[in-house]
Amino acid sequence: MAKIRERYDALVVGGGIAGMQAALDLGEQGFEVLLVEKEPSIGGIMVGLNKVFPTLDCSSCICTPRMAEVSHHPKIQLQTYTEVNKVEKRGNGFVVRLLKKPRFIEEDACVGCNLCELACPIDVPHEFDYGLGARRAVYIPHGNAIPQKVVLDVEHCVFCGKCEKVCPTHCFDFTQEPEEVSTEVGTVILATGLNITPMGAKQEYGAGNLVNVMNPLAMERVQSSNGPYGHVLRPSDGKIPRSIAYVQCAGSRDRSIGVPYCSRVCCMYSLKQALLLTHYIHGLDVTLYHMDIRAFGKGYEQFYRRAMREGVKVVKGKVAKITEVENQDLVVRVELLDENGRVEERRYDLVVLAQGLVAGWHAGNVIAAEEADDGFFRTPEPKVDPSHTTLEGVFAGGVSAGPKDIPDAIVEAGEAAMAAANHLRRTGWHAVAGVSLAVGAATHQVAERCEVC
Amino acid sequence: MSEKPQASQPVKSKSSIAVLRERHGGMTAELKEYFKEQQRVRKALRGALKGGPKTIPELAAACALEKPAAVWHVMAMRRYGEVVEGEERAGYMLYALKEA
Question: Which of the listed CATH numbers 3.50.50.60, 3.20.20.70, 1.25.40.10, 3.30.360.10 matches domain A197-357?
Answer without folding.
Answer: 3.50.50.60
